[in-house]
Specification:
The protein has 615 residues and is of the alpha/beta class. The chain has 3 domains: 28-344, ABC transporter transmembrane region fold (Up-down Bundle); 359-441 and 523-615, Rossmann fold (3-Layer(aba) Sandwich); 449-520, P-loop containing nucleotide triphosphate hydrolases (Rossmann fold, 3-Layer(aba) Sandwich), CATH 3.40.50. 64% of the residues lie in helices and 10% in strands. It has 21 helices and 10 strands. It has a 6-stranded mixed beta sheet with strand order 6-7-8-3-9-10, sandwiched between helices. The chain has a 4-stranded antiparallel beta sheet with strand order 2-1-4-5. Strand 1 (366-374) and strand 2 form a beta hairpin. Helix 7 (187-209) packs antiparallel against helix 10. The radius of gyration is 35 Å and the shape is elongated.
């Protein structure tokens, strides 16, 4: 019988056609690194205008200082009786240096405030978009890698801002100012300098652009390796338990070596650009100085002209290198940001409809109407699900692994969208209301309770942030965990550790149940809530669950059939469909699938072994 059911399911899955999940278009600011950066610049436009003005003033003062040095040298080369010109030039020289310093310091202060503020906005915006992704997305991407990308993007923006404001913009302003000064000395020099700087800078930019793939490859490897390292650290128990320290070190060594190779390729490509510029600098500096000496020997220019041309030549040529390499670094920073947007900026597939209302609580009736769902790989998970659960009814869902039990409750929470049919709570489609209000009507107690690296008080209060301490204590008492909590050294202020590892399995479950009590939702979902516990812990958790389930609609997924004997109904799933539905007594008397599972489980077999036995 079961072979026939399974063959039918897979045959249907092979020929089924499901409509694609609806996706929300990407927000404009996630459509490429240039648009992404421009979005934040526009949001802080006044700050960037002020920054540009300060940099323009400071760089202009720097060029004027060089010209003032010419005036000072020429005045000192003249008769000593005309010392007033010397003192005026000196006063102007000191005054310009003072103004330049003040402007640089003000720009540093404003740049710090602006860049750090945008970094905060950027991380929050990326997190807001990331938490709208479906659960499948988080199963396919390492959490550490995602976190590192968000953090690194803010850092990359800061580095990019610093590169543009303090490394690329000042040399450009110096270059324009130098052209003006050179025009006053000899316009031929102005043309020569202008043509050379444009050619060298343009060549370096083109050279740098060709290395874009090196920088992007390095960014991708860096983020991936960071995620792998965090993944190993977060699973250190498994590493130790399976004597895998050496193996994991070797695997990380290979990953680090691959990242290092990508980093060296990116770094050395930039060094090649520096070598090319140094050669050009040597040639141009020698020619410009020889030109100046020749003009001075012909009395065409003054000693002050030689000083200012020499100083500005080296300043501009060094500045052109800084500007060109800054633009190369900008390409690298763009590569990092582009890699982040490529991973995080994927279209969201589970979205609220425009102007979707909040769900209205009316008791807790749940209804599945002809529900079908297949994963992105084409594997059909559930189909032909028609199920109505009246408010206040307690229903158990059983079946082997892969039967579609967990998928069914994930669809109810709208972690995925159904591809055919509909799911309703109190007559309201879960796809037509806001996701947050939908999930506010559900309290979920999974097999693995997700606890934050925070205090027990904060973890319980997570169910309802506005709850008072007394309400938290009452929820803990109802979940039979107040006693063990108060026995801990810090009581409710005890930090539970990453994922709650400082607590036992039974203690974590009871803290999770206390959180569900505090949430006080009309619908309770129990997803294998006791299957991983020992007998004593299970009995304690079961006592807490009995209190939690009073006067609520309960949907419980369980492997142990004995835990569902007091439930109103049992639904048996096989191959993604409901094959039996009734109370325990009726299903046992029917001598069908459930009765066979019951008898075989009584012999100590798991549901998966039962399926193999039946097949």
């Amino acid at each position: 019988m079961w072979k026939h059911v399974r063959r039918g399911v897979f045959a249907r899955a092979a020929g089924a056609v499901r409509p694609a999940a609806t996706t929300r278009p990407l927000p404009p600011f996630l459509r490429g690194p240039k648009v992404f950066l421009l979005h934040y610049v526009q949001r802080h436009s006044l700050s960037f205008v002020a920054l540009f003005t300060m940099i323009l003033g400071a760089a202009s003062c720097a060029v004027a200082v060089q010209y003032t040095m010419k005036l000072l040298v020429d005045a000192m080369a003249g008769p000593r009786e005309g010392s007033d010109a010397v003192w005026m030039a000196l006063a102007l020289f000191v005054g310009l240096i003072t103004v330049e310093s003040v402007l640089w310091r003000l720009s540093g202060w404003l740049g710090c405030r602006t860049t750090v503020g945008i970094g905060v906005d950027m991380r929050l915006d990326l997190f807001d978009y990331l938490n709208g992704q479906p659960m499948r997305y988080f199963a396919e991407n390492l959490a550490g890698s995602l976190g590192q990308r968000i953090t690194a993007t803010a850092g990359n923006f800061g580095a990019l801002t610093n590169t543009i404001i303090w490394r690329a913009l000042p040399p450009f302003i110096d270059f324009l100012g130098a052209l003006v000064v050179f025009a006053l000395v000899d316009w031929h020099m102005m043309v020569a300098l202008g043509v050379f700087v444009v050619l060298v800078t343009g060549g370096l930019i083109l050279f740098g652009e060709r290395g874009h793939h090196y920088h992007r490859t390095y960014a991708s490897n860096s983020n991936r390796v960071g995620g792998e390292l965090i993944d190993v650290i977060s699973n250190m128990w498994a590493v130790k338990a399976f004597s895998a320290r050496g193996r994991e070190r070797e695997r990380l060594a290979r990953d680090f070596a691959q990242e290092a190779a990508a980093q060296r390729a990116s770094w050395m490509y930039t060094e090649k650009a520096r070598v090319l510029h140094d050669i050009s600098l040597w040639m141009m500096a020698g020619l410009m100085l020889a030109w100046c000496v020749r003009l001075w020997s012909n009395s065409s220019i003054t000693p002050g002209d030689v000083v200012v041309v020499s100083a500005l030549t080296f300043r501009i040529l060094h500045g052109s290198r800084d500007m060109a390499l800054a633009l190369v670094d900008m390409v690298q920073q763009f590569g990092f940001i582009d890699d982040t947007l490529r991973v995080i900026g994927q279209p969201q597939t589970v979205c609220d409809r425009p102007n979707a209302p909040d769900i209205q609580r009316r008791g807790g009736t749940v209804e599945f109407r002809d529900v079908h769902f297949a994963y992105s790989d084409g594997r059909e998970a559930v189909h032909d699900i028609n199920l109505r659960i009246p408010a206040g009814q307690k229903i158990g869902i059983v079946g082997p692994s892969g039967a579609g039990k967990s998928t069914l409750i994930h669809l109810l929470q709208r972690l995925y969208d159904v591809q055919q049919g509909d799911i309703l709570i109190d007559g309201q489609s879960v796809g037509a209301v806001t996701q947050d209000s939908l999930r506010a009507t559900l309290s979920v107690v999974p097999q693995e309770i997700a606890l934050f690296h925070r205090s027990i008080m904060e973890n319980i209060r997570f169910g309802r942030p506005d709850a008072s301490d007394e309400e938290v204590f009452a929820a803990a008492c109802a979940a039979y965990c107040d006693g063990f909590i108060r026995s801990l050294p810090q009581g409710y202020d005890t930090i539970v550790g990453e994922r709650g590892m400082r607590l036992s399995g039974g203690q974590r479950q009871r803290v999770g149940i206390a959180r569900a009590f505090l949430k006080d939702a009309p619908i309770i979902i129990l997803d294998e809530a006791t299957s991983a516990l020992d007998t004593e812990s299970e009995m304690e958790v079961q006592r807490a669950l009995v209190r939690l389930m009073r006067n609520r609609t309960v949907i419980a997924v369980a492997h142990r059939l004995s835990t569902l004997t007091a439930f109103d109904r049992i639904v048996v799933m096989m191959g993604g469909r409901v094959v039996e539905d009734g109370n325990t007594t009726n299903l046992r008397q029917a001598k069908g699938v459930f009765d066979r599972m019951w008898r075989l489980q009584a012999e100590g077999l798991s549901l998966d072994e039962i399926v193999e036995d039946a097949a």
